[in-house]
Amino acid sequence: MKILTIDKDTYRKKTNLVMVGFVGCLAVLAILFGSILIALFGSEGITESGSTGNFHLNVLGVILAVIASSFIMNKVKSHPYFDEIMYVWKLKQVHNRIYRKLIKIKEKAARNDHDSLLVLAFYYTTQQQVFTLDNNTLTITAVQKSLNEVYEQAAEMKLTLDLDEFDTDLLDKY
Asked: Per UniProt, which keywords does this protein have (predicted)?
C-alpha cells in the first residue's frame, strides 16, 4: 500500500460534507419510506394509549433507509471525490489488522526481523498521518517516539526501511 500525501483541510472538508450528506440522506429516506409504508399499510386510528400502531412501519422505513443509503454510498465511493476518504478508511483497516497482530510483530521486530520493522515503520508513519488528519493530537507524540525507536533499531542493524515495499501480504505471516 502506497502512502499518499493528503491535504488536511481538503480531507476534513470532504469528510464533513460526506457525513452531513449521508445523515441527511438517511433522515430524508427514513421519513419518505416511513410515510410511504404508513400510507400503504398503516392503521388510521389512534389507540387509547395515544399510539397510531405504526411504529413497526417507521422502524422498517429506517431499515430501508439504511439499506438504500449504504447502497448509494457503495456506488459513489469509487468517484474521485472520495479518494482521500477511501484512502484513510483503507489505512484504518490496515491499522486494525496490524493492531490485532502487534504483539507478534513486536516480538519478531525485537529479534531484528526486517519485515516486522517495516510493518512497524509503516504502521507508525501512517498512524501519525491519520492522527494528524483526524486532529488526534493526544497520542501523536507516543507514535512519533515509537517510530523513532523503529528507525533507530533499523539503523543499528544497518537495515533500510523503504515504506514503498510494504504490502498487506506481509501481515499473513504473523
From this structure: Membrane, Transmembrane, Transmembrane helix
